[in-house]
Amino acid sequence: MHILLSGSLAYDYIMDFPDTFDQHILPDHIHSLNVCFVVEQLKKNYGGTAGNIAYTMALLEGKPLILAPIGSDSAEYMHHFSKNHVATTYIRTSSTTLTASAHITTDKQDNQITAFFSGACQEATELHVSDVKEPISFVMISPTQKEAMIQHAKECHEAHIPFCFDPGQQITAFSDQEMMQVIGQANFYIVNDYEMKLTTDKTGWDKEELLNHVDVLIITLGEKGSVIATKEQTFEIPPCAPTSVDDPTGAGDAYRAGFFTAYVQGHDYQTCGQVGSVAAAYAIEQYGTQHHSFTLDTFVARYKETYGETIDLVM
């Protein structure tokens, strides 16, 4: 069975700023902001939520299928997918626009400012869950064009396919009613702690009320790990310590890849969260979102070293 990934495909331009943003932004003049951040390095990487999640799922020998458009400059990215055993069957190449691009600046405290050009993502509504012929066990709806996220959620709900709603950086694009509608259709809802605050502001729902609308709420907490909550139980997941902190970009996508790869194999939520944490650690240790690598054997060994448990991740 496959996991279907509805989300973005993008080229990431990742930049390191050798100071902190708050030293260059004057709170009293935020209404007339005009700043320039001189960065130390710039690298072009493969990215986008669907691409990042699929890449780590493939390392875990999962079966991701990407439902997303890509731009007319896609040859390099598609070759990358082929080389890393990621299926491209349902990636549609646009003939009229470039691939989406994210320009991400990270400061010394790992705060990030991102500018995103949607590019070919604007065509995401032309793709449908029903286009997929393979059997689907689960769907992840991650940030892309808002209208496509709403459409794919509705299609999953009507087809009785369980899915996770992952609004990410698109959360502010949704109206209050749209947020409540999609959350109400979802089985899982995953956000970081800041996005959780935005969710509460938009919906008026705290964690307890959210669990009247989804089966599982996942809140990622960066270096503090994650929390997985159901109506019956809350699981606090300790992080897997990275050997170095080269770049936090993409750690959340790696966590999602690990969590849901384990979930579709039938592992419990504690184990799923721990698999997600190990996957995130690998991503943090490499610059860029799709440069980390591991074999299934080394991943399982690191999992046991971190959590003192043996896990079987063979598909």
Kindly summarize this structure in a few lines.
GO terms for molecular function: kinase activity. This protein is an alpha/beta fold and 315 residues long.
Please write out the topology.
Elements: E1 2-6, E2 10-16, E3 41-47, H1 49-59, E4 64-70, H2 75-83, E5 91-93, E6 100-106, E7 112-117, E8 136-141, H3 146-159, E9 163-165, H4 176-185, E10 188-192, H5 193-203, H6 207-210, E11 216-220, E12 226-229, E13 234-237, H7 251-264, H8 269-284, H9 296-307
Parallel strand pairs: 1-4, 1-8, 2-6, 4-5, 8-9, 9-10, 10-11
Antiparallel strand pairs: 2-3, 6-7, 11-12, 12-13
- The percentage helix is 25-40%
The description of the largest β-sheet is: 9 strands, mixed
CATH homologous superfamily placement: Ribokinase
| Strand percent estimate | 15-25%
The run of helices and strands is EEEHEHEEEEHEHEHHEEEHHH
Description of the molecule:
This protein has 315 residues and is an alpha/beta fold. It has one domain (2-21, 40-307): UDP-N-acetylmuramoyl-L-alanine:D-glutamate ligase (3-Layer(aba) Sandwich). It is built from 9 helices and 13 strands. Strands 5-4-1-8-9-10-11-12-13 form a 9-stranded mixed β-sheet, with helices on both faces. Helix 1 (49-59) packs across helix 7 (251-264), helix 7 runs antiparallel to helix 8 and helix 8 packs across helix 9 (296-307). The mean pLDDT is 94.
